[in-house]
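Help! Submission page says 'invalid entity' but I think these are all valid:
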Amino acid sequence: MTKALLEVRGLDVDYGAVRALRGVDLSVERGSVTAVLGANGAGKTTLLRALSGLLRPASGTIELDGRDLTRAAVERIVRLGVAHVPQSGGVITELTVAENLRLGGLWRGDRAALARRIDEMYALFPPLAERRSLPAATLSGGERQMLALARALTGSPRLLLVDEPSLGLAPRVVARLMAVLRRLCDEDGRTVLLVEQNARSALSIADRAIVLDLGAVVAAEPAATIAADDRLRHAYLGF
Amino acid sequence: MSIDSRALFRLTLVRHTCGAVAAIAVLYVLTTTAGPYRDLQIAQAAYLTCAVAGLTVLTGLGGQISLGHGAFMAVGAYTAALLIIHQGWPLAAVLAAATGATALTGAVVGAVAARLEGPYLAGATLAFAIGLPGLANYEPLIDLLGGQNGLAVPPPVPPAGLGAAFPLERWQAWIACLGAVLTLFLLANLTRGRFGRTLRAGRDDEIAAALAGLRVARLRIVATVVSAACAGLAGGLLALVATLAAPGAFPLALSLQLIAAIIIGGLGSLAGAVWGALILVFVPTWASDAASTSGLSHNIASNLPLAIYGLVLIAVTLAFPRGLQGGLRDLGGALRRRLPPPRLPTNPPGGADEATTDDAGARPDDRGGAGGRGERVRR
């Protein structure tokens, strides 16, 4: 087995006196979709924030491709190829769609490559192409989520962290987003770590899944195994 | 697309250059027709424009509040005064040095401020505004900085080529106006490009900007440096126009007035900065003229100007919640919607002076990006 792209060992994260993650182990294989499931407050978002450097872990290690990221700054982690799509997108509403997209690849400094990348994004998300010169404030929820995802992809990340893309979106839009995430893995060889409340749609595209409960990993299995485990589904996933 | 955007950039540059040239022409006519008193007021409005424009970039685009810009102006003014008195440098070099020295101060303040936000940032910059002018009264520095009386600056001498009878005030107004136009021109180009875009991103959503790989803290420090440099130039110009650099010229009220000016003009708008500076200078004098000719008793007449000034500020903020420039933009939009093509000129109503300042300023929503420039939405 080749070494996993992302290796997390014994990760503890605190919010003040509250321990939000305790001893989380996680490994994410190259070119796979890994779902992080669990109830509200289970620590899913905390995990992503720790991975992208927004939160500093109390202990444990995070390695991307063998390189230690545990205490690296956000910008450095981005430059090493980790893109984080935060919950509800984090789209800059005052900038236009095109400007938002350019923002995502600005740090690469290669204008021509960035322009090519943005054209690819328009091909991937046609609604964005139509609205490219409108302020992002005019976009619908689904379009904003597309824009957030597209912006993260303009940086050509190796690891894509996506936080609850389904939040507040119609089932059909969710299905389309999930299909895009799957295609990113199958066709472009990207690696996705997907945090979802909506376990059913996440498991439909995931290769593996971990289930968090009160900050600890209670299951780490192939997605099909988790989907088939009635006890787990009833206890933690609510379907 | 890269050729396309480059062509667009060139166009922007051309537009800003035309605006600057037009502004200089109008200001030339204004200053030569106005009397010495008006020239002095124009000079004041011009140097305040520099400071307000710098502040509006920091606060309006960058989201960092600064109550300390009066202190930055003091740094610029004292730098200019010391260089003129002790070194006798030529004007341009003095102003460049005042700008540079204040930019350095800005780097220090910015490095501290980048860690702070909201009320904490306001508190820190407030301390800076109150503390720094006090340096002039600091015992070991009194000989150098002149204590409470400050430093008297020899007035700039108009070049002999302009004739012996050339009024000093007009020369001062020219220097200040040139500084203001140059500042607006540079800021307009700077904020229209990548710097302005990333600055707004950092203001709107710091986390998203960081996740996009922007170095938000560094961005804020750069914004503070740029903003301080503008205030430093404003201070240097003030020293030349007022022929004095004294702690009394940089009270806390100055910093607060600068904040008021960016809000009245419209946060983040360079054209709004010009409006704000004009209001700072002309409303108080207009109010005191009105009060002194009103025939009221001396007691009332001497207190009236401040009350009128306050009322004007309240009225403007009520009528134009997004500032004068925001209000004009809405007005222009409404006109354009009502009257289908042939298109009206987009200049706001008003004299030639206002029209050109609008051209020199930046309209943040006026960028095409990759697509056509026609389909834009007014918020």
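Support: the input was valid. A stray whitespace character was the problem, and the output above is from the cleaned input. The CA atoms of residues 291 and 302 of chain B lie 7 Å apart.
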